[in-house]
Amino acid sequence: MRKKDAASREVVVLKIGGSVAAEMDAAVSAVVALSDAGRPLVVVHGGGPLIGEWSERFGLATRFVRGLRVTDEPTRDVALAVLAGLANKTLVAALVARGVPAVGLSGVDGGMLRAEREDAALGLVGRVTMVDSSLLEDLVVGGRVAVVAPAAIGPQGEILNVNGDSAAGAIAASLAARLLAFVTDVPGVRARDGRVVPTLDRDRAKALVDDGTIEGGMLPKVEACLVAAAAGSDAAIVSLREADAVERVLGGDRVGTVFPAEAL
C-alpha cells in the first residue's frame, strides 16, 4: 500500500443502503452535507430490497442463510446488474444533480476487492480478504466522491457478491479512514432494555453478540465497525434521521453508537 496523504487519512467512509433504500433523499442529503463541508468521502451502498424485487421479476427464489443471500449464478447476475448498475448509477446521478462530484464504481473495478468463498452453502458469496484502495485514494485526492457497489473478484477470477457492510469495513481499514459511519434506520445498537449503547469496544460487543442482543442485520455492521477500529479508525452507527449525526461524531460528540479507534 502506498503512503497515504493527508486527504486520504481524513476520509470518511459512509455506508448507506439496504434497509434505508426507501429513504434515498435523506441518504443523498447526508452525503451532500459532508461533501459541501469539504470532507473527503467514499460512499459504499447496498441494495438488498432492490435485488429482491428484480429477482422476483425474473422468477428467482430468494433464500437466506445466517442473514446472507444464497447466490447461484442467475441471482449473482441480477445482484451485479442491480448493485453495480441501477442502484449505483441512480445514486451517482442524484449526487451529481446536487453538485457532488460522484464517480460510480464496484469492488471489481481496479481489482479493488478480492474475496474468497464465504461458504459452499451460500454459492457465489464472498468474504473480502484484500483491498487495493489505490484507485479510491486517487479519487479522494482528486476531490471526487467514490460511490462503491459491493462486489469482489474471487480466487478463480469469478465475480462474487459480498456484504455491503463488510465491504465498507474493509475499505475503511485499508484507507486508514478517519471515520466509518453507518447511516441507518435505527439510532444505534440497542441494549436489552431498548436503550442505545453509546460506545462499544470488542469485549462489550462480543458479550452482546453472545447473549443474542446483537443479531440479524446489525451483526455485519458491528463486525465492520470492529474491523475499522482495529485498523485505527473511529466507527459509528447513527440514525439517518439526524441530519448532522456524522458531523457531530466527527466533532467528538457521542451520537448513536460509537466504536473508538483501538490503539495501534
Q: What is the SS-derived class?
A: alpha/beta
> How much helicity do the residues have?
25-40%
Q: Which homologous superfamily in CATH is the superfamily?
A: Acetylglutamate kinase-like
**Broad CATH class:** Alpha Beta
Low-confidence stretches: none
General description of the model:
The chain is α/β, with parallel strands linked by helices. The radius of gyration is 17 Å and the shape is globular. It has a single domain (6-259), classed as Acetylglutamate kinase-like (Carbamate kinase). The chain contains nine helices and 13 strands. A hairpin with a 7-residue loop joins strand 6 and strand 7. Helix 6 (164-175) packs parallel to helix 8. The strands form three sheets. A seven-stranded mixed beta sheet has the order 5-8-2-1-11-12-13, sandwiched between helices. A four-stranded mixed beta sheet has the order 6-7-10-9.
List the helices and strands and how they pair.
Layout: H1 6-9, E1 12-16, H2 24-36, E2 41-45, H3 48-57, E3 64-65, E4 68-69, H4 73-97, E5 102-106, E6 113-117, E7 125-131, H5 134-141, E8 145-149, E9 151-153, E10 159-162, H6 164-175, E11 179-184, H7 202-210, H8 218-230, E12 234-239, H9 245-250, E13 257-259
Parallel strand pairs: 1-2, 1-11, 2-8, 5-8, 7-10, 11-12
Antiparallel strand pairs: 3-4, 6-7, 9-10, 12-13
Helix pairs in contact: 3-4, 6-8
